[in-house]
Amino acid sequence: MREDGKTNFWLTAALLAPTSMWFLFMLILPLIVILVFSFGERAAVGGYAAGFTLEQYANLPSRLKAFQNTMVIAPVGTLLSLLVAYPLAYYLALRVNRRYKLILLVLVIVPFWTSLLVRTYAWIFILGGRGIPTLLEFIGIEGVRLINTPGAVLVGIVYGYLPLMVFPIFVSLEKLDKTLLEASSDLGGSPLKTFMQITLPLSTPGIATGCMLVFILLMGEFLIPAFLGGGKVFFIGNALVDLFLQSRNWPFGAAVSVTLVVIMLITVTLYMRLIMRGKTGRDESLM
Amino acid sequence: MSKGNDDNNKPITAKKFMKELHRYQKGSVTRRHFLGVTGLGAAMAIMGTAVPSLWSGRANAFGDLGDRLVFSTWPNYHNQTNLDEFTEMTGVNIQVNAFGSNEEMLAKLQAGGTGWDVFVPTNYTISNYVELDLIQELDLSRLPNYDAAANNPKFAGPATVNGKVYCVPKNWGTTGFVVNTKKIKSGPRSWKDFFDVTMGKGSGHTIVHDYQLTTIGGALCALGYSFNSVDAKELAEAEALLIKSKPHLFAITSDYQPGMRSGDAWMSICWNGDGTQLNNDLPEMAYVIATDGGEIWTDFYAIPKDAPHLDAAYAFINFMQDPYVQAREAAVHGYAPADSRAIALQPDSLGNDPILHPAANLMNGLEFGAAVTLTDPIRAEVMARFKSA
Fold this sequence. Notes:
The structure holds two protein chains of two kinds.
Chain A lengths: L1 H36 L3 E2 L5 E2 L5 H4 L5 H32 L2 H12 L6 H12 L4 H7 L11 H25 L3 H9 L4 H12 L1 H16 L3 H6 L7 H10 L4 H37 L1
Antiparallel strand pairs in A: 1-2
Chain B lengths: L13 H13 L4 H8 L1 H9 L19 E6 L6 H11 L2 E6 L3 H10 L6 E2 L6 H6 L21 H4 L3 E2 L2 E2 L1 E14 L10 H9 L6 E3 L3 H11 L9 H14 L3 E4 L4 H6 L4 E5 H10 L3 E4 L5 E9 L7 H12 L1 H11 L2 E2 L2 H6 L2 H4 L14 E3 L2 H5 L1 H12 L1
Parallel strand pairs in B: 1-2, 1-3, 7-8, 7-9, 11-13
Antiparallel strand pairs in B: 4-5, 6-9, 6-10, 6-11, 6-12
């Protein structure tokens, strides 16, 4: 028995080693570097110069607008993605003929075969003056501007992140025990009541996962606002790209990154608490 | 250099060259005839050391250059035919990265490990790159197509730092703005007009570059200051002007052609070659050299210090220095070569083009970008604050 225990220990350690190394070198160490940099100074020609100052953190209010934009558009974008994705996931999981299910699922994934960059660039032309606004002019609606507005950024977000939202919800709806739905209707529940009391609560794990995936990625998004916001709808991700790739102010960029990580940790922790609290109650009653 | 036709040693005229080029493009003559009659076969032979390599697909004459070249340049700045031909002749595939600002290039090079073999820096950055030890001194013996004497020293000058040559000229041009005259009829002539129209009748339809030099420079000129100012007070005024105009902007981007073409944007800060490209397709696009200042610049081919494919890099720069290749580049991107041999090959319509070769008096007020603007922390932060405002 003791022999076995030892072997198991070494086996476990060996199997975990690659992952641990990955986390150490790709996550922990870089985070430490960023933290150290955030207390440094911008070198004369740009980059990082060693030092210890809180100057970078004191300068954070100059990027307030970027933080605000992100903190508003990321949740709104997540919510919109959810509203668009849920009916689609519902249809795919519960309504569609089994024969077409696989094809339709593949169709949801197909856009991933092309880079998001290329697909977002295409939206510049769809939303630009010779795209939808020209079509609108045909039916008499003139002077519509879509591109380089928060609305355009939201369209891009919903388009780009839809699959990430669809799949978790689809999985949770797919697992749903159909007899529960029959029971509900046998007992006189209206379709709406059945949906609100059975389907929706049972799909919350999928909704929670989808929202989390989309929200976390959106907080760091920079490509969609850069392309469809024309540099005017500025996310914190854009501020970071700017600080590292244009003004080469690494310490300030590091301070902004640290702040973003802290905001994310707080938001996600609160979110998890909320979800867990709601979930445990139901899990007990259902399982 | 002897011409392909033994019975005619005179260099071909520009007009005849274009005629032959058209014949070749239409398929009326063979490639062999075209290269022969224009003397390009000989020109290429020097570069490639053996003419047959041009027809044999993959050339042995170039030696083993590897199969890859990483090339960092600007948008809308090359003739794809040239790039394809280089690949065809040498077997070297070119991976092109397009950038929006010199600062972005500098940031990547400073961070290290770019893997770039050739890049296209602008005049004011060269001395910085040398100081930061980021670019190589060029071995001109490996660039037989480069003819220092043919290059206008006004434009080629910044390539030499402390007596050493670090790069060779690509093109030169001016930075002004382009106006859609169908939409804006008031005829703005200056940077002051530019910002007035932006905040007035043209509100919502102006693009400024995502590039500190030109965007801050334009605002500075509008206020009557130098394009290159690094004075804190003047920059604060420029920042105030930019932030005030921001709600009236269509976009902040260096990729401004799509916006101008779609009709969403009516006015944009513009490099003259892009002005030509827009004007060629849409005659209502007018390029303006502002009366209150602006930029004159030269772009160069340079090799980063740690270029992984050095041989391919030299072969590529040499290829791009060929006068015919330069002329073919300019025919597409609309920027003037600094090389008189290439200008001689251009059709008269391009050689006398007022956008490519503006009259000297128009350029009096223009300034070459100053080296200090590249690394100045205030300019960098002004731009970053303007964007996140």
